[in-house]
Write a structure and sequence with these properties.
The complex is a heterodimer. By secondary structure, chain A is mainly beta. Helices cover 3% and strands 38% of the residues of chain A. In chain A, the strands form three sheets. Chain A has a four-stranded antiparallel β-sheet, with no helix packed on it. A four-stranded antiparallel β-sheet of chain A has the order 5-6-7-8, with no helix packed on it. A four-stranded antiparallel β-sheet of chain A has the order 9-10-11-12, with no helix packed on it. The radius of gyration of chain A is 16 Å and the shape is flat. By secondary structure, chain B is mainly beta. Chain B has a four-stranded antiparallel β-sheet with strand order 1-2-3-4, with no helix packed on it. Chain B is globular and about 30 Å long. Chain B has one domain. The chains are: A mainly beta, B mainly beta.
């Protein structure tokens, strides 16, 4: 594993909603990182608490990620741990990660959250593939068995975005 | 056929969702508004125009006010100002929990 501030490219970057020096960043592995084992290309997630001076690895085979905190929750006095991170990832994959997500939903990708940067984690939704989060709502698309259609789930800041229930879309 | 949804705004404790008309290649769609949980939707405005982006904007200086560009076959295309009734929005908000 190679540190983000030692030449790895940051492909995605997300500041924390309330902690101004915190951020998440994602990077894809390169074959140069695998010297004693077969090359595997997948997306890794890192966090920094000092505006990128130091990066700490969180987890791998990541698709979408979001901070769990919300400025609306903070303004309304609802406690969500600042450390909470939402991630959709494929926990079983040992090969290359599919980068063309839009062409095919996956039954192997699940939604997780962690309050300690994945020292421990909780699976929140099986087959949760993608996340859209605003300060008020979080929407998660879950693949159906045909891997063509999805169910959409939503939760609000009032539950810390954990009360995910199926949306009845128009 | 793919159905495309676009999340337009969530700042008013309700979700504004744009749904493209089925049949593809039509530059129109409908805006739906949700309950406070973001789970049930009702039609708010039809024939909203979408070019590279949906013609739907929040008026940040006036809470609860949005402007949409709507196609009206009888009156030609024109800008419609759609100021939502605050009492109606309060009803949605009161529905939470």
């Amino acid at each position: 594993m190679k540190a983000l501030n030692s030449g790895k490219r940051i492909q995605e970057f997300l500041f924390h909603p309330t902690q101004r020096t915190w951020a998440l960043a994602a990077s894809w592995t390169t074959c140069a990182e695998f010297q004693d084992e077969p090359c595997r290309i997948y997306k890794e997630l890192y966090y920094t608490k000092d505006v990128g001076e130091n990066w700490t690895y969180i987890t791998n085979y990541v698709f979408d990620f979001e901070w769990g905190q919300s400025n609306v929750a903070v303004e309304n006095g609802f406690h969500i741990p600042d450390e909470r991170v939402w991630v959709t990832r494929d926990a079983t994959n040992k090969k290359h990660q599919n980068t063309s997500r839009k062409l095919s939903w996956s039954l192997d990708i699940d939604l997780y959250y962690s309050d300690d940067f994945f020292e421990t984690n909780t699976m929140a939704l099986a087959q949760g593939n993608t996340i859209i989060k605003t300060p008020q709502y979080m929407f998660v698309s879950c693949s159906k068995e045909d891997m063509i259609r999805v169910n959409v789930f939503s939760a609000t800041w009032r539950s810390g975005f954990t009360n995910l229930k199926k949306v009845r879309l128009p | 056929m793919t159905t495309t949804f676009t999340l337009m705004d969530t700042s008013e404790d309700q979700v504004f969702l744009f749904l493209e008309n089925k049949g593809s290649n039509t530059p129109f769609g409908s805006v739906y508004i949700s309950d406070s949980n973001g789970r049930s939707f009702a039609l708010s405005l039809e024939n909203v125009i979408k070019g590279s982006a949906v013609d739907f904007e929040r008026v940040t200086s006036l809470d609860g006010t949005f402007i949409a560009n709507k196609y009206s076959p009888s009156l030609m295309t024109r800008m419609n100002r759609n100021a939502y009734d605050h009492n109606l929005i309060d009803d949605w908000t009161d529905d939470d929990g």
